[in-house]
């Protein structure tokens, strides 16, 4: 069976009042894809996400979500989003991990219904998927940045999205924990069949299970399989980004020129 197209952008352009930010973006994401969206600061990554999430309307072009025009798309809960600023609870914040994850259910059950019959199971399964079930009763503020970020991913998963968008999720995660964080994302994609868009400006830390890469800097300079991205020259990448970028392959060796 052909993989369903979950996201389809065609010739999308966007400008804030005076600033042209995106120009002629065409991009597709299919069921099962694990797409890394790469680009330096200010390249338009957040703006592109806001367009996908329906928070901004393109000034030109079309956006389809799950085959439907974005303007009439009714199932926003199918798209989970975890922002880079999620993990900022201090130690005194009065909520347990379980409570934080449960709060993700409002998207699924609406604000006024209070309980789903399988609520507890959904919460625990989401925590299991990110390797955090043993922390269910801990206070969110006592956890490390990486652990908090995992909890926020569980909070998105509890609504049972079909696509998960992560905006620079490793910001605030200690260097030594980044690899296990990416292993967890790999597991979500491969074992839980979660389609994912991982936004990062850090080309050095692309997860090993990425299937596709899109390089954004106002326009899409490259969109294709990860292997084809790996064979791009440093000079080519530098020309797109306007400054030196360094590529590290998933075996963590710096690519030698
Ligand atoms: P990235 O996420 O890649 O850092 P953004 O999408 O946040 O990029 O920003 C792209 C460009 O749009 C930047 O030049 C930024 O200054 C500009 N920009 C972002 N938000 C606004 C806004 N609300 N109004 C005007 N310009 C904005």
Give an account of the 3D structure.
By secondary structure, the chain is an alpha/beta fold. It has a domain at 1-32 and 43-74: P-loop containing nucleotide triphosphate hydrolases (Rossmann fold, 3-Layer(aba) Sandwich). It is 28% helix and 25% strand. It contains eight helices and ten strands. The chain has helices at residues 45-52, 97-102, 106-109, 119-129, 145-157, 175-190, 226-230, 234-241; strands spanning 5-15, 20-30, 34-38, 60-65, 68-69, 79-82, 163-167, 195-200, 212-217, 219-225. The strands form two sheets. Strands 6-7-8-3-9-10 form a six-stranded mixed sheet, with helices on both faces. A four-stranded antiparallel sheet has the order 2-1-4-5, with helices on one face. A hairpin with a 1-residue loop joins strand 9 and strand 10. Helix 4 packs across helix 5 (145-157). It is globular and about 50 Å long. The N and C termini lie far apart (41 Å).
Number of helices: 8
Summed over residues and divided by their number, the pLDDT gives a mean of: 86
What would the principal axes of the Cα set say about the shape?
globular
> Would you tell me which CATH topology of the domain at 1-32 and 43-74 applies?
Rossmann fold
Ligands present: adenosine-5'-diphosphate
> Distance between the terminal alpha carbons, to the nearest Å?
41 Å
Give the spatial strand order of the biggest sheet.
6-7-8-3-9-10
**Biggest beta sheet attributes:** 6 strands, mixed
Q: Provide the β-strand percentage band.
A: 15-25%
Question: C-alpha Rg, in Å?
Answer: 18 Å
Poorly predicted parts? 248-257
| CATH architecture title of the domain at 1-32 and 43-74 | 3-Layer(aba) Sandwich
- Written as H for each helix and E for each strand, in order along the chain, the element string is EEEHEEEHHHHEHEEEHH
CATH class of the domain at 1-32 and 43-74: Alpha Beta
CATH superfamily (homologous) name of the domain at 1-32 and 43-74: P-loop containing nucleotide triphosphate hydrolases
């Amino acid at each position: 069976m052909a993989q369903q197209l979950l996201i389809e952008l065609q010739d999308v352009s966007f400008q804030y009042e005076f600033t042209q930010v995106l120009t002629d973006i065409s991009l597709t994401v299919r069921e099962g894809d694990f797409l890394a969206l790469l680009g330096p600061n200010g390249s338009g990554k957040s703006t592109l996400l806001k367009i996908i999430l329906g928070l901004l309307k393109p000034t030109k072009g079309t956006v389809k979500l799950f085959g439907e025009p974005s303007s009439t798309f009714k199932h926003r809960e199918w798209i989970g989003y975890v922002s880079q600023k999620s993990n900022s609870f201090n130690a005194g914040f009065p909520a347990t991990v379980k409570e934080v994850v449960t709060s993700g259910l409002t998207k699924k059950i609406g604000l006024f219904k209070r309980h789903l019959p399988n609520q507890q199971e959904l919460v625990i399964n989401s925590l299991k998927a990110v390797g955090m079930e043993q922390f269910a009763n801990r206070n969110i503020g006592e956890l490390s940045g990486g652990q908090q970020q995992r909890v926020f991913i569980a909070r998105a998963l509890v609504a049972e999205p079909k696509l998960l968008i992560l905006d620079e999720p490793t910001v605030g995660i200690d260097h030594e924990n980044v690899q296990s964080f990416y292993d967890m994302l790999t597991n979500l994609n491969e074992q839980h069949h979660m389609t994912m868009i991982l936004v990062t400006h850090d080309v050095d830390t692309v997860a090993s299970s990425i299937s596709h890469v899109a390089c954004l800097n106002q326009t899409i300079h490259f969109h294709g399989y990860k292997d084809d991205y790996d064979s791009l020259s440093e000079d080519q990448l530098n020309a797109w980004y306007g400054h030196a970028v360094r590529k590290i392959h998933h075996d963590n060796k710096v690519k030698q020129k």
